[in-house]
Amino acid sequence: MYLSTVFLFLGDLGGGEMLVVITAVLLLFGADKIPGIARSVGRGMREFKDATNEIKNELEQSIKDEPKSKID
User: Fold this and answer.
1) pLDDT, block means (10 residues), the chain with 72 residues
2) Statement: the pTM of the whole predicted model exceeds 0.70
3) SS (H, E, C) the chain
4) Is the Cβ–Cβ distance between 13 and 7 less than 8 Å?
5) Is residue 53 a contact partner of residue 46, using CB atoms and an 8 Å limit?
6) Which residues, other chains included, contact 69 with Cβ-Cβ below 8 Å and sequence gap of 6+?
7) For residues 9 and 17, is the Cβ–Cβ distance under 8 A?
8) Whole-angstrom Cα distance, residue 25 to residue 9?
9) What is the dihedral of CA 32, 28, 44, 8, to 10 degrees?
10) What is the rounded distance in angstroms from the CA atom of residue 46 to the CA atom of residue 52?
């Protein structure tokens, strides 16, 4: 996976800007807290994805279970 596709939402972000962002994150949170933050973000993303999949499955199931109306 290309780094540019991962940060696509940030627009045209170059190497210098990435270095500034990484440095700012290190200064704000410290190197020891970053893995914990990344783990928490990953868990949150996984829970969000699971919830969306669950809603999608429920909607598909309700569409399958819906009785078809007869046209006379």
Assistant:
1) 58 81 89 91 96 95 77 55
2) no
3) CCHHHHCHHHCCCCHHHHHHHHHHHHHHHCCCCHHHHHHHHHHHHHHHHHHHHHHHHHHHHHHHHCCCCCCC
4) yes
5) no
6) none
7) no
8) 18
9) -120
10) 10
